[in-house]
Amino acid sequence: MLFDPKQQNLPYTFALLKPDIVLKPQVVQEVINKIESQGLIIKNFIQRELYKEEVLNIFYKQQKFIDEILQYMMSGECIMLLLCHETENPIQVWKKMIGNKDPVEAKKQDPQSLRALYGVSLIKNEFHGSDDPSSANKERDIFKFPIPQKVPEFKYDRMLVSLELLFKFLYPPNLEHSNALERMDIFAIYGPALNYHSVDQCLCRTCAIYGKQHLEGVRDTLMKLESEKSGIKIRVMPNQSKSQLPQKNTLPPLRLLKEEDIQTIYQQICQKCQEHCNGYAHLCGGRALQHILTDQEIKTLAAEMNKQELLELLYCEKGNAATIMIETVSLESPNHYTKEMIEILFKDLETDYYNRYKFYHLQNVILEDRRIRMNAWMSQLINKPIHRFKNPKLISKVPPEERKNPESIHFTINRLLPIDMTYKKKDITQAALEFPPNLADKEKLNPNEEKLALLKRLHRETHKMVEITDLKKFDPNGVYLLRKYNEGRNGGWDNYISLKGMNKGTYVVPHKKESI
User: Is residue 79 classed as helix, strand or coil in its secondary structure?
Assistant: First the structure.
């Protein structure tokens, strides 16, 4: 099994069963049953004789008895185990199971420990376990056991964004021609885009009732937690309603259903609302982020943002004339990115096990790409090469290592033009195409395949084949060459006929030329 850096490493310990106990299969089975009863999971199992180097590497701390240990450990087969535990420290669990190194002391301390039950002497105590994680890692590596891993538990995190979620925001189903770049810039500045949905704006009236009831329960739970943290206990009087209670810890009304909330009520809402939740992603704003930004708000924000940044760049190049020039400029970005181009933009970023990007990484990449796009836009407006700009943002004295790191505020993309100005579609003409074997090339044919194979062979040299007697029934479209295969290597002139478009063609028969 290959190591996957996106998976979660499990804590583990190395366990060894020595030769005398391995000779007793019934005892070995009893030990394995006890291991499993303690919640330990056997990830790897090997039974064989040990090499001298392996024994020396395992028992390097016991140099005083190394000769006796070598003689005993190489006298027969041993069993090597790699053990994990889901909730506890496997090193401590295994150490507690086997007991003291000296079987005599182990019988006094814990008579039910494995060394107390099966150990004979300090050398033949029959069990070995790792002392700490460093020793476990070394002993695991001796036998080339892979590091045990598990699939990490999925957790909702608003700062982790997948491409699927981002594309839901960039290309919403209700917009036929959405400006993906403008929406992507807004996502970077006001994001992240979330799979949150408003009970007021996204759901129908019936489904909104389910959503509000659920959010009221969530709000009550949060209120209780806030009260416990602050030490305030609200007592309900017999004649006092809940709305009349003095509440010092108040929360604003909740109007946004989060991803985990949607999963809870998903089966209760109608199909139309389910399709909306599956197909849309939103940006949140307003008080306590309880408002969903509409498409018109996003478009207005993008236009204002483009205007301010273009004005700054124009001031650097044109001075006071920039205020006049900006009024004549269209504020819609001239660049357009497809989904393939956006995937290229993020291809070097790391993802977690569920292919989610860190929002901070996406933000740095998008804003850096926006800088490049704005410079290219400015170059078109003033008809001046980018490398001759007075823009101070083009000057960078940061080390290259910092510029390549998306975690750094100095992250820089090493190109001058936007992706859509340099992107080339893949040339598929050179791609290797694998077609299924043709029936015409088959060596041995079944009786029902002979006629079809003959037609396929004839089709390699002709486009259409008709009998001359049926020619007047044929409506020609294009140019066709018809040939009747008679005896002879190449046939004769009277074997061909030519049709072109809707015009009449001619064919030749012996001693007579006829027109059709």
Answer: strand
Residues 231-266 pLDDT 10s = 655 444 444 444 444 444 456 678 888 888 888 888
Say which residue, 227 or 20, is predicted with more confidence. Answer: 20
- pLDDT-derived band at 168, boundaries 50, 70, 90: very high
- Between CA 368 and CA 362 the distance in angstroms is 10
Q: What is the rounded distance in angstroms from the CA atom of residue 140 to the CA atom of residue 18?
A: 17
Burial of 183 (0-12, 13-18, 19+ CB in 10 A): buried
Could you give the CA distance from residue 25 to residue 277 in angstroms, rounded to a whole number?
Answer: 58
CA distance linking residue 87 with residue 80, whole number of Å:
23
The span from the CA of 334 to the CA of 376, in Å, is 10
Distance, CA of 439 to chain centre: 42
Mind listing the pLDDT tens digit for each residue in 339-394?
Answer: 999 999 999 999 999 999 999 999 999 999 999 999 899 888 888 888 777 655 54
Written as one letter, the residue type at 324 is I
Q: In one letter, which amino acid is 511?
A: H
Q: Which two tokens stand for residue 69?
A: 């240990």
CA within 13 Å, CB half, 398: 16
How many Å apart are CA 279 and CA 202, to the nearest integer? 11
Half-sphere exposure for 54 (CA within 13 Å, toward CB):
16
CA separation for the pair 197, 259 (Å, rounded): 8
Specify whether the CB–CB gap between 198 and 212 falls below 8 A.
Answer: no
Cis peptide before 192 (omega within 30 of 0): yes
CA atoms of 99 and 463, how far apart (whole Å): 87
The two three-digit tokens of residue 46, written as one number:
């090997």
Euclidean distance between the first and final Cα of the chain, in Å? 74
Contact in structure between 301 and 179 (CB atoms under 8 Å): no
Token readout for 418 is 């936007």
Pair 98, 113: CB distance under 8 Å: yes
